[in-house]
Specification:
This protein is an alpha/beta fold. It has a domain at 2-81 and 157-275: Rossmann fold (3-Layer(aba) Sandwich), CATH 3.40.50.300. The protein has helices at residues 42-49, 75-79, 97-106, 112-125, 141-153, 171-186, 198-204, 242-247, 253-257, 266-275, 291-296, 313-342; strands spanning 2-9, 19-26, 31-35, 57-62, 65-66, 82-86, 159-163, 190-194, 207-212, 215-220. The strands form 2 sheets. Strands 6-7-8-3-9-10 form a 6-stranded mixed sheet, sandwiched between helices. It has a 4-stranded antiparallel sheet with strand order 2-1-4-5, covered by helices on one side. Helix 3 packs across helix 4. It is globular.
């Protein structure tokens, strides 16, 4: 259903990849938790599935289709088969719960007769059949999230992506949202949920994929939130500190070997093939034109382009780090120029 084939995503040249050498597959009908500290690459993974960003290297497949071969005018059709649920709900504030769900159908030209049938069905499924006429501000946080889920699922997508859907909710309400997502999964939809909700992961006991520094360090069936793996940040086994991670790289064979259940690192799996593929430093970057050029570092700087409203947490972290590096380089360049003029 979703497959990443040696995927690396670097937003700006010279900075650490948001996702690096990613090889993973989510099969049809799975329920998968993506866990990891902020900045670990979870949201970047989801944005690549939606084709909001393109990988710098590697290939992403969704429903058997190579996303790099899908032209921009076909992207809306692709996204009709992918539902997206956000932590901050992103409902239209001037529209009622009914109208928010209706809007998702109207934009794809669904006949009015079908809309009148589907929207009440969705409101009933999420337990809000009597609150369709209420505006978002008249609903509780849990009710707003239910509307957001109904809007994402009303087209019966084969894939549902959820980015921290329980992050702003109390435990009891979060449990209800999880039950709703589990029900959607039981109807055949693949659910991929990025979360920091320890209770949710431990309660559901589904597949758990943990990311650290853009790499998958754990892929466990029926897993829990914490793990004895020494490469886990969320379990407190590795400090949530980029400097420490640079000093102790994730593909260190001795570190991984300390944990019997740790998966072999992607770098180790490719070691023998890279010995025959040419110099390790060979440039495998991709030249990008158009909107993706800015993301790859070949287009305008971050200051010259507007910040999209749907930029997620990992991207903001990447942007701040890139800006710090760029400002440091600018200062060094100006200092060298002044010294040359004095001489």
């Amino acid at each position: 259903m979703i497959r990443f084939d040696d995927v690396t995503k670097t937003y700006m040249r010279g900075q650490h990849p948001a996702v690096e050498n990613l090889d993973i597959e989510f099969t049809r009908g799975e329920f998968v938790f993506l866990v990891g500290a902020s900045g670990s690459g979870k949201s970047t993974l989801m944005r690549m599935v939606l084709k909001e960003v393109a990988p710098t290297r590697g290939t992403v497949y969704v429903a058997g289709k190579d996303l790099s071969r899908i032209p921009s005018w076909k992207v809306p059709a692709l996204r009709r088969d992918i539902g997206m649920v956000f932590q901050d709900f992103r409902l239209l504030p001037s529209k009622t719960a009914y109208q928010n769900i209706e809007f998702a159908l109207a934009v794809i030209g669904t006949p009015r007769k079908v809309v009148r049938r589907l929207v009440p069905e969705m409101l009933e499924m999420v337990g809000l059949e009597d609150k369709g006429k209420r505006l978002p501000h008249e609903l509780s946080g849990g009710e707003q999230q239910r509307v957001a889920i109904a809007r994402a699922y009303v087209n019966r997508p084969s894939i549902l992506l959820a980015d921290e859907p329980t992050g702003n909710l109390d435990p009891a309400t979060a449990e209800g949202i999880l039950d709703l997502l589990a029900e959607i999964n039981e109807r055949g939809t693949t659910v991929v949920m990025a979360t920091h909700d320890r209770a949710a992961v431990d309660r559901m006991r589904r597949r758990v994929v943990e990311m650290v520094g853009g790499k998958v360090v754990r892929d466990e069936e029926r897993g829990g939130y914490e793990t004895p793996a020494p490469v886990s940040v969320i379990s407190g086994n590795l400090p949530d500190d980029s400097t420490h991670r640079e000093e102790h790289p994730l593909d260190d064979e001795e570190l991984v070997a300390d944990w019997d259940g740790a998966p072999e690192s992607p770098a180790a799996e490719r070691e023998s093939s890279e010995e025959h593929a040419g110099p390790a430093g060979a440039d495998r970057s991709v030249e990008v034109d158009g909107p993706d050029a800015a993301e790859a570092g070949t287009g305008p700087s971050a200051e010259d382009r507007p910040v999209a409203q749907d930029v997620l947490e990992e991207d903001l972290i990447d942007e701040r780090e890139a800006r710090r590096v760029r400002e440091s380089e600018d200062f060094t360049g100006d200092f060298d120029q002044d010294q040359e003029e004095l001489r």
